[in-house]
Design goal:
Elements (H helix, E strand, L loop, with lengths): L2 E2 L10 H10 L4 E3 L4 E3 L7 E7 L2 E6 L5 E5 L6 E2 L12 E4 L3 E7 H10 L1 H27 L2 H18 L7 E3 L4 H8 L3 H13 L3 E4 L2 E4 L2 H8 L29 E2 L3
Antiparallel strand pairs: 1-13, 2-9, 3-8, 4-7, 4-9, 5-6, 5-8, 10-12, 11-12
Helix pairs in contact: 2-3, 4-6, 4-7, 5-6
Length: 257
């Protein structure tokens, strides 16, 4: 398969810069759904790039619960925030069968020295990830349950559209109500109730691992969604939920070495 990365959603990188990525990455690794491939506290001196499938980043709680911090999607880096720490400050698990590649700290530093444009692109990507975490903090702290669920699903749709993995009307979504509850600070029962209300209002339907959007403008209004933080530095937005002029901006694929 080709090496996928979200780096080129920032100002365009040269092909020779992108071509160096698979050269310094590890061989592809496959993990089954439910596999925890990074555990909080373990020594992990590398960052991952998700090549296919869905993952989650989370903190485990003493009483056995968890707080999901983010949902990495294909092309996303994982673990950039803790790659220089002595140990991982959060865990990663596969929400579907996934394929990842990884970069050791040594290889990353050498790549940054030889390709400063790559270092700049990675910094931009880390800044975008930070902006998304800030939005998720606002979700939990200030938005209503309906706003949280609608905002989360719109953000996922936006990111998947940029990756060429969603249509305007629907997208595949392996998340369970338990996953959404752990991400949004709600109970699964509350998430179920909100999804039913959104369906009854004719806004969206979530079933059989698919989210179908029935009234995009209405859903944006409910969530008060303004998603420029997802695509800063990317293509110009129009008024239709930040779609690119061509409809979809695909994740750049870099030929494997």
């Amino acid at each position: 398969m080709q090496f996928k990365t979200r780096l080129n959603c920032t100002p365009p990188l040269r092909l020779r810069d992108l071509a160096c990525l698979p050269e310094v990455a590890s061989r592809l690794q496959h993990f089954k759904r439910g596999t925890e491939f990074v555990h909080e506290g373990q020594s992990v001196q590398k960052a991952y790039v998700l090549q296919s499938g869905w993952a989650c980043c989370y903190k485990e709680l003493r009483e056995g619960g968890r707080q999901i911090i983010s949902f990495p999607l294909p092309g996303d880096f994982m673990g950039l925030g803790s790659v220089l720490l002595r140990s991982a400050d959060h865990s990663f698990a596969a929400l579907s069968d996934i394929i990842v590649s990884s970069f050791s700290v040594e290889n990353m530093m050498n790549m940054f020295q030889k390709n400063p444009s790559i270092a700049t692109a990675v910094l931009r990507l880390a800044s975008r990830d930070h902006a998304m975490v800030v939005e998720h903090l606002v979700d939990i702290g200030r938005r209503s349950a309906m706003e949280r669920v609608a905002h989360c699903l719109l953000e996922l749709r936006h990111r998947l559209r940029l990756a060429g993995l969603a249509s305007k009307e629907e997208f595949d979504c392996p998340l369970t109500q338990y996953d959404l509850a752990d991400a949004l600070g709600l109970t699964p029962i509350h998430v179920n109730r909100v999804l039913r209300q959104l369906r009854e209002r004719g806004l969206l339907t979530m079933k059989a691992h698919t989210v179908a959007i029935h009234d995009l403008a209405g859903l944006i209004d409910v969530a008060r969604y303004e998603g420029s933080y997802v695509d800063q530095g990317g293509a110009a937005h129009d008024g239709n939920l930040f779609e690119t002029s061509s409809g979809v901006e695909p994740v750049p694929a870099v030929p494997s070495s």
